[in-house]
Every structure is written in structure tokens, then in C-alpha cells.
């Protein structure tokens, strides 16, 4: 099993490690679950889940003994969810490794349907044990709103496809990503933005208010026995999430009204220094948002949005800076 951390975007600290199955090929290279799981039958998928669960909880028990107080998440295929023995397997594994059920998160793929009464009963039984449930790959598949309404998920994981188009259509991507983060907030369910492959995109997710993030910008999947060393040497990412790129500044400007007035004085705004480096006209567009200039707040705010978006997506064209 390989592990990938999920970090708190406020503190920058890892809170959960997701267990990711890997299969070693004859040539020594590793195949991801997406490459080999589709070839497995239902019984083999069940077996894979039980192996992943057992090894993940064994690793978690070891980390806890070292003072690394994190949780672990394991992917649960809907076909295994339909096996009436599923909750018993989970309960036995938790007992065997002496793990508090609240430290285990089971991730259900949103791209696969949950449509049987047996699956529903298993979800209820797992919650009865105290296990937390997450909906994985939100935005990539089946009946999102309906599923969130009918099943008691504790965590929402937002698929990378939601923000993959940021460099092409930054503003519409901000709308989509923000809407799903807000959905989690309104449901009182924390969200994790998956697939964050750059510090730039990590900063965007943090600006939009995502509680948690996961992706290569934080860490690539690592062997379970590498987690203690990684945890000891990793610096809190929050120190690196500064508003010093066009992407992060656009997200901040968009989050704070875009073309509408911004509260407070421009001198206290965290994007003022960045924008001041790009000319007096850009700075004027920004200060007008704070009421420091009696000018066209809406028009200048829109120009600033377009200018920032054009620097994120160079082909879009920027308004003239005069």
C-alpha cells in the first residue's frame, strides 16, 4: 500500500493519509488501482479491500505508537459495499489493530452508482461502528446532489476534473470549484480538493475556502513505511501559500466580489503589493474597489478580473492598461 497525505489548508498539517493500492509488475514498475482493478471480479475486489484495510490499519497503529496522530482512509468499491459481510470485516479489522473507528475514513467513488438496499444498510452499519464515510471524486459522476441528500457522508472529496481547466477558463473554473466547496460548507461537511499538482493551484483552493487539499503539490504517494520520515521533515504548507501569483490573486479578487466594492482600505489588502508592481493603471483599478478612488468601481473591477484572467490564460486577451 502507498499513502498520500491530505492536509489542512489552514494549518498546513497532514490530517489523513489515503491508502492507495499498487501492483508491482514483473518489470518492477508499479500499476495504479485504475490500471488493474477494472480487471478484477467482485470477489477479488472484496479481497483487495480487506487487504488494503488490514494493511492500512496496521500502518496507522504503528504511526500512532510513534506519536503521529493522523487518520487513514481506504477506498471502498460500491460492489463491496453491497456485500452484507462488509461492516463485519471492518469491525473485526478495527478490533484486531486496536484502532478507534473515528480514525478510519471509507471513500466511496462518486463515479459508481449506489442503488441497492444492501448498500444502504451497510452504510448505516458502518456509521453505527463510528466509521466516517467520504464521497470520492465529487463532480465526476452519478447523481451528486441526490446522493449527498440521501446518504450521511462525513467528508466530500472534489475531483481534480473540476479544476483541470483553470488555465484555459479560470473564472468559470473558480465558479465551479467554489460552488462545490460551498456545497460542503452548507451541508456542514468538510471538503477536500483533490489533484492539486502545483503550489499555485493549492493557493487557489485555500483562497476559495477549501478546508483540505490533496495532490502532488503536497506529496506524491509514498510507501507506508516512509510516512514517519515525511511527516517529520515536511514544513507546514501554509507558509508557502502566499498571494504572489496571478492565479492566487485572481481567486482572491473574485472571492471578494470581483466587480463590486471591497471592504477596508487598499493598504491593508493582501493583493495590493502584487498589483502595485504591475503599473499605476492596474493599481488604480484595484484601489477603486476599496473606495480609495471615486471612480467606476464596477468597470474597473471587471477590467481587473479580465486582466488577471488573461495572465492565467494568456490566449484570452487582456484589457488595455492605460
Per-chain topology:
Blueprint: E1 2-8, E2 14-20, E3 22-24, E4 30-32, H1 33-36, H2 42-65, E5 71-76, H3 78-81, H4 86-97, E6 104-109, H5 117-129, E7 132-138, H6 144-150, E8 155-158, H7 170-186, E9 191-193, H8 199-207, E10 212-214, E11 222-223, H9 227-233, H10 246-255, H11 272-276, H12 280-289, H13 297-312
Parallel strand pairs: 2-5, 5-6, 6-7, 7-8, 8-9, 9-10
Antiparallel strand pairs: 1-2, 1-10, 1-11, 3-4
Helix pairs in contact: 2-4, 4-5, 8-10, 10-13, 12-13
Folded structure, characterized:
With 322 residues, the chain is an alpha/beta fold. It has two domains: 234 residues, TIM Barrel, CATH 3.20.20; 71 residues, no CATH class. 43% of the residues lie in helices and 16% in strands. The chain is built from 13 helices and eleven strands. The strands form two sheets. Strands 1-2-5-6-7-8-9-10 form an eight-stranded mixed beta barrel, surrounded by four helices. Helix 8 links the parallel strand 9 and strand 10. Helix 4 packs parallel to helix 5, helix 10 runs antiparallel to helix 13 and helix 12 crosses helix 13. The longest helix has 24 residues. The chain is elongated and about 65 Å long. The N and C termini lie far apart (57 Å). InterPro entries: Cyclic-di-GMP_PDE-like, EAL_dom, EAL_sf. Pfam families: EAL (PF00563). It comes from Conyzicola nivalis. This is EAL domain-containing protein.
